[in-house]
Structure formats: structure tokens, C-alpha cells
Amino acid sequence: MADRRYDPARRVVVKVGSSTLTAEDGGLDRQWVDDLCTQLAALRADGVEVVLVSSGAVAAGLRPLGLTQRPTDLGRLQAAASVGQGELVHAYAAALRRHGFVAGQVLLVPDDLVTRDRYLNARTTFSELLAMGALPIVNENDTVATEELRFGDNDRLAALVASMLGVDLLMLLSDVEGLHDGQPSAGAPVINEVHDLSTLDDRHRGGTGSAVGSGGMASKLDAARVATFSGVSCVIARGRRPDVVLDVARGEQVGTWFPPARKRPDSRRLWLAFAHQPAGRLHVDAGAVRALAQRGSSLLAIGVTAVDGTFERGDAIDVVGPDGHPVARGIVAYDAAEVTAMRGRSTEQLTDEQGDAFAAPIVHRDAMVVTA
């Protein structure tokens, strides 16, 4: 027990990447799927609630369609996903059924997490599935997602699901042993723990994915940021390591661990922080940074120094400090042109010149989450 990183998890999200799921011939590795499901079933039998976020729909559809590599155009990607999703879920469901467990398919698009009522409905669906003993299998709905409206990769999707459900642990199963301190091919060692993601640089983030997947270490580190801010432990580990799911769930020192923040924000602030894709950025001065981070203040026009992007009232925006690092995310009360005209001016000036219509904060503290 002394060498364990954390107490055994009671609710976990496991994310599997395409490169881990794929056999040497490019098709779905059904033997590995069976082994994974044996581990997941062992957790469920021990009373652990499990959600599986699985990539691989596109990869699973390649061989049936006679393709040898992942398509680059959207139409063929969606066709491969349409064929492969059925193959993938059938393989999981059959393997879990042999252990006496039922799989439930959940396909999500960003609107399911951005629109508040759909977010709450999705959370209720997960909760009911888990309460009834089912094992949800989650993927982005690739057959209808577009480049303009998608999660980006399943690492981010897994982190958002973990945040939404308030799980103990997010496992990101990859084709590497963990986060290496440099290039794995050059023999760089695996980092055991990362307590501050801001200390990492480009040599840690690496490439952008494999021939069958869309993720990479950069997307996993972004997912770790979402998870840890949400009060969720995150571990990156090699998916084909024997008993990896069981060992990580027990807190064994496998892969790279990202400890959670000590205090988990409330669910609405988590929704504000991560469900939305920001439509722009507001640059603020050092005084505004202190007011937001230390006093929990609203963002006033006088602290805004510059405006990036074209956004409308009600859009999500990022607030960045003088060093360019994000400080907060929130729902803006004015459009980009209005904020540009208001920036640097006091509330009294704006009220005298424009009336009460411009007296409200740029971003109210109740519609903002500080991420610094």
C-alpha cells in the first residue's frame, strides 16, 4: 500500500486510442479487445464504475472498405467511421457479454456538452447506465461531426466526460509507456509524476498522432489539464502492458501520473471552463489578473488591453494575461466591436457616455471560471 500513488479508484474513465486497438494488418485487434474487456469486467465485478471512451471507429472501418490507411478527406473518414462503429461496438459488447456485463453505446457531439440542458441530460444518461450496471462505451459521432464542430480528438472527449461525471481517475491508454522526458526513440526516461503542466515544453508534447489515429502526446497533455483542474487524477500508460487497467485503477506506479487539483470547482464552472470552444480572447493587464485570480472579481472594461477574434454576446472567450497565458474563461456580455470600443475605460466613463447599457462587466464573475 505504501508505494501506491492513490487509493483504488471507485469510478474511472478509460480511454483507448486507435493505435492501441489496431492489429498489424490494420484491422481491429479482437484478441486485445477481449483482454481489455476482461480487465474492465474485473473492475466492474469489484464494484468499480467504468466508462470506456474508445477511438478506433475509423480504423475498424478501413479493412471492410478495402482501405489501407486513414483517409484525409472528411467524406471518406465519415464513411469509414460509419462502417467501423458497428464493428467496434459489436466486438466490445460480445466480449463484455461473455463476462456477464452489458455495454451501452453513447455517441456524442460537442453540442451535447456545450448546450446546458443537453449536458445535464447526457450526465443523467451516464448516471442511469452506471446505476443499472451497464458499461457505457463512448465515442464522438464521427459520421456527422465536421471539422468546424468536433471535439478534436477522443483524449479531450474522455477528459470532458471524466469532468462531467466527477470520476476519481482518467486513464489514457497509449502506445508509449507514459510521458517521456524527451524522445522515446532516443531512450528518454518516463516521467513518474507531473505536478505542474506549465513546466512542460515542446520536447514533451511530441507529434500529433499515428497513421490510424488523430491524437498524440499533445492532446493527452491537454486532456490531463482538463482532468486535473476538474479534481480528477490522470494517468498516461501503455495500453498493451499486461493488466494495465487493473494496475492503474489500484494506484500502482504505472505510466505517468498527473495528480488532481485539491479543490474541484462546481459543475457549472467546469462546464463553463471546458465544454465551450472559445470564440476569441481578451488581453488584460496585471491589475485585472490579480483582481480575477485573487479577489474573484468580474472583468471590467478598464482592465482589457486588446481584443482577438470575432465574437458575439453570449459566446465563450478566454482571458489572457500580459504574458499571453490563459487566466480565465467565461461568457462575454458584449460583442467584439463593443469590447474594442470599451477597453481601457472605467465603468463611470462608460455610464456617463453610453448610459446603463454599457455598465455591466465585460464578463461577470458568475459566468466565468478562473483557470490560472
Automatic annotation (TrEMBL):
- InterPro entries (alphabetical): AceGlu_kinase-like_sf, Asp/Glu/Uridylate_kinase, G5K_ProB, Glu/AcGlu_kinase, Glu_5kinase, Glu_5kinase/COase_Synthase, Glutamate_5-kinase_CS, PUA
Q: According to the UniProt entry, what is the EC number of this protein?
A: 2.7.2.11
Give the pathway listed in the UniProt entry for this protein: Amino-acid biosynthesis; L-proline biosynthesis; L-glutamate 5-semialdehyde from L-glutamate: step 1/2
Tell me a GO biological process for this protein: L-proline biosynthetic process
Reading the lineage from the top rank, the first entry is Bacteria
Keywords linked to the UniProt accession: Amino-acid biosynthesis, ATP-binding, Cytoplasm, Kinase, Nucleotide-binding, Proline biosynthesis, Transferase
Q: Which residues bind ATP?
A: K15, S174, D175, S214, G215, G216, M217, A218, S219, K220
Cell compartment(s), UniProt:
Cytoplasm
- The entry marks the following residues as binding substrate, namely S55, D142, N154
Assigned GO CC terms: cytosol
UniProt domain PUA: residue ranges: 280-359
Q: Which PROSITE patterns match?
A: GLUTAMATE_5_KINASE (PS00902), PUA (PS50890)
- Keyword Cytoplasm found: yes
- Keyword field contains Transferase: yes
Q: Please provide, alphabetically and separated by semicolons, the GO molecular function terms listed in this UniProt record.
A: ATP binding; glutamate 5-kinase activity; RNA binding
Catalytic reaction annotation: L-glutamate + ATP = L-glutamyl 5-phosphate + ADP
Classification via NCBIfam families:
proB
What's the family? Answer: Belongs to the glutamate 5-kinase family.
* Function comment: Catalyzes the transfer of a phosphate group to glutamate to form L-glutamate 5-phosphate.
PANTHER family hit by this protein: GLUTAMATE 5-KINASE (PTHR43654), ISOPENTENYL PHOSPHATE KINASE (PTHR43654:SF1)
Protein name according to UniProt? Glutamate 5-kinase
Task: Record the organism.
Answer: Euzebya pacifica
Its ancestry begins with: Bacteria, Bacillati, Actinomycetota, Nitriliruptoria, Euzebyales
